[in-house]
Amino acid sequence: MRIAVLMKSVPDLVEDIALDEDSGQVLFDEMTYVPSEWDDQALEEALLIKEESGAEVTAVTVDTGDSDNILFTALAKGADHAVKLVGDYDPSLTNRRRAQIFADYLRDQAFDLVLSGVQAIDDIDGQVPGLVAGIMGWPHASVVTEVHSKDKGVVLRQEYAGGLVAEIEASTPLVIGIQAARKPPRYASIAKVRQVAKTQQIEEVEAESPDVPTLAVRRFYKPVASGHAEMIDGDVEEVASRIIEILQERNLLRR
Amino acid sequence: MQKAKAIELDVAVVDGVELKGSWNRMFEPRAISEYDLSVLEEITAIPGAESLGYCYQCGKCTGVCPVDTVGDYSPRKIFRRTQLGISLIDSPDLWLCTTCRNCLRVCPKEVNMIDIMPAVREQAVLEGKAPEELLTAFENTARYGNPIGESPRKRVEWTKSAGVPIPIMSQKKAPVDVLWFVECYPSYHPRGKQASAALARIFDALHIDFGILGNEEKCAGDSQRMAGEHGLFEMLAEHNIKMLSKYSFNQIVVTDPHAYNAFLHEYPKYGGEWPVQHYTQYLSEHLGDIQFTREIPYRVTFHDPCYLGRHNGEYEAPRRLLNALPGMELVEMGHCRETSYCCGGGGGGMWLDSFTRDYASERLSERRVREAVEYEAEILAVTCPYEVPRFEDAVKSTGNAGKLAVMDIAELLAYSMGLVDSLAMAN
Predict the structure, then answer these.
(1) Distance of alpha carbon A121 from alpha carbon A124, whole angstroms
(2) What pTM was computed for the model?
């Protein structure tokens, strides 16, 4: 089975989001980026499938300037190949365009399974797997927590509201949005990543910038506080006492 | 299976000294071939972990191991379990050692946990067997340059509240006498920042020509190294050495004994060789310039940090500073100097508190705080950035809130020099 894992980096929320207050534009160049955590889950599930029943795993990113580290880390964790789709792209790349670039690449490859994070913290909740499936006309399963290879297809677990889980059989090719892998993503030691960076190659594939429909942002604004939340103000001591008070009121303290 | 036989030689010559009969057993491995030693041999085959095999189970380490007093762990027990076929790589034992070095101090066979632990842990990390919370600290350090996961852009933010100018090397563009390597907890932790501000004010008051790296500084990485992430340590060392090499200074002064250890023993291996002092060493040489204006009328005890004391032999500098403080009474706890207890933060312990909880009756910091209270100390003076948060938490969790205050020596000095307005006493 050949598996592609679509990966990307997203703004790092450890830093403040850089926003031009006047124009409402996000200042992408002023932010730092981290691998999207759901994509890490997708990679982990792909590696677990590989360990369980054999598979060839290829990590794929669109090069927006800082994709090497994601790909070398994926190789260090056990991916077989790493592909960087290169073109004139920067971190402001929308997911609609990203999905088109991924789909244009995937169309010419013989992958059986395409995994990616079900969502991300960047624009409009990510949505890459659904968009890629839609563009390619492939079947798509979303919010998946477990994937096993079976016969010529896969068995997957999909989460529904209210704690319901469905076990679904599907034929390949298939695009899956991973909510969580069966196990926490593995750790790639720095020595391993550095060794991989010296010894393994990232395959670069030219990717033309496609024309895609775009959204126009009308305004950026902070969410308006509604009446349900109590914002606790004050210094550390006051805030701490209020939290203890609330826990006691709700009978949430174990004595 | 081979039967064990006595292995004493009639005469052995060790370092030119003739040793007869049973005495030379001290210097030769004991015959332990009645066991299947394959697991032990797997461990001792790891470069750095060879000395685990030297153990002849005298148990001296068990008597001094701080972890054994709160749990079922000591180097001797590790050896015995490994000998019986329990792999250290899979055992929780692997993560309980704080690398405090007390066992090595008493071990007649020089079974060296300071080398064994990082070596075997590195193997466990590679095999994906390290506790999750430790890996989070590693990932944070790799990504942000600090184990806490704070913004690297805000590393220098504490300087704004210090109340004195703190030159940042990239802006100063001139040589300095002292390059102050601040480290992570002193840059980010609320109590660490207070101690940093106090130290900055002392430097300022003494007209010391100093500068810091600011946001160019990353974690020195010594505890990550001891916790088994040598690659991460190398990456951090290379970065810090590159940044430091851009500037001219006469010496490095560090806040953190763990950074002190790294600069003294490890960074030179990567080409980063500078004279380095812990801040207590540096200030104790400048005691003559210090004007004390306020008394500290309290009973104070001092906790020797493992990496300043046992690891690097400095017991006097912090005491010289404490004894110079007017009005205070310094009382030594039973565990002091070479026999000092451990706060539990070293060797990665700082990032393993949830893991350790399942294997210990209480935290090492809690045990230490009880000892300080037993000696009726009102202030527990410390001089390692791990210790203020660890001991302050322990004061509360042992029900001693209001009885004991935990303070960095820099905070005590700054108060006594009139540089900060109040002493945050327990009550």
Answers:
(1) 8
(2) 0.89
